[in-house]
Amino acid sequence: MLAFLFTTCDKIDGPFYIIPENEDVTVNFPELDPSSVYRKILFEEFTGHRCTNCPDGHLKLEELQERYGDTLVAVGIHFGALAKPVGETFSYDFRTEAGNRIGEAYAIDAIPAAIINRNDKEGGWPRSQWLSVVPTIDRTKPTAAIQMINEYDEISKTLKANVKVTMLENYNASLSLVLLLIEDGIVKPQKDGDHDVLDYVHNHVLRANFTDPFGYVLRNGSVDWTAGEELTYASTINFSETDWNPANCSVVAFLLDPINMDVLQVEKLEVLSR
To answer: Is the CB of residue 22 less than 8 Å from the CB of residue 234?
Structure first.
């Protein structure tokens, strides 16, 4: 299925990446306090710069972010016909191959829409339901914790994302780790109703993927995880020949059960510490 989806995606202009295997982690993570860990929510929003209703979706997402703070991690995926570059005003291409694969896999056919914690709802949730669906997610028992350390080299323009996963409960299924790069503060045109807003600010935009967008399989697909078990992962991407601003970028890491299609935990960390 994924091979079919990949071949039917539109051509995306821009940088392409060979996704590396797990690299050595050479940083020291601070000691984890399990009592301080709570389950966070992954909110993947499908949008497009020529979508007249998407600014309303952005406002609803902002309302959720105000309500949930850093416990809700947003990723903006520009996807579909209304995300395609057209003409001079909308010539910028926000789309990514990873975003296309995710959107095709979830049969997103109308935007704005969202998938929450990688749920298997075909077509995603329409914006009218976002504020009611998110509160139904059980966040009382975190299954795992994710710690992150980003290393950005100004000279080589490379970013190494280091991740440590600690299991807080026993878990009997295979697990995958997904790492994405997002960027805030991108000023580009956006349709809003009948108007073209030329200086619209696009936030949490998906820029690149360190891993496959459906995950790097951990421990060769082991289905036997024990509370207290730890593992690390690292991957590097290059900012050269892109227009990404590292000061506005963050890494999103989440732990995914690829069978149940459920996100056990998600974290976000800025590329440059402020």
So the answer is: yes
Helices (H), the chain: 2-8, 54-68, 97-105, 127-133
C-beta separation of 201 from 185 below 8 A: yes
Task: Tell me the C-alpha distance between 190 and 81, whole Å.
Answer: 14
Distance of CA 29 to the CA centre of its chain: 22
Angle at CA 92, nearest 5°, toward 51 and 240? 135
Is pTM beyond 0.85? Reply is: yes
Q: How far apart are CA 112 and CA 128, in angstroms?
A: 10
- Quick one: how far is CA 253 from the chain centroid? 7
pLDDT per residue over 102-147, tens digit each? 999 999 999 999 999 998 789 999 999 999 999 999 998 899 999 9
pLDDT digits (tens, 9 = 90+) for 169-204: 999 999 999 999 999 999 999 999 999 999 999 999
Q: Which residues pair with 74 in a beta bridge?
A: 43
CA distance 252 to 155: 23
Please give the average per-residue pLDDT across 229-237, as a whole number. Answer: 95
- Residue 41 and residue 64 in contact, taking contact as beta carbons nearer than 8 Å: no
**Average pLDDT of the residues of the chain:** 91
Q: What percent of the chain has pLDDT over 70?
A: 92
Beta strands in 134-248 (DSSP E): 144-153, 158-167, 176-183, 186-187, 190-192, 195-197, 201-202, 205-209, 216-217, 230-238
- The token duo for 177 is 């780790």
Burial class of residue 28, CB neighbours in 10 A (0-12, 13-18, 19+): exposed
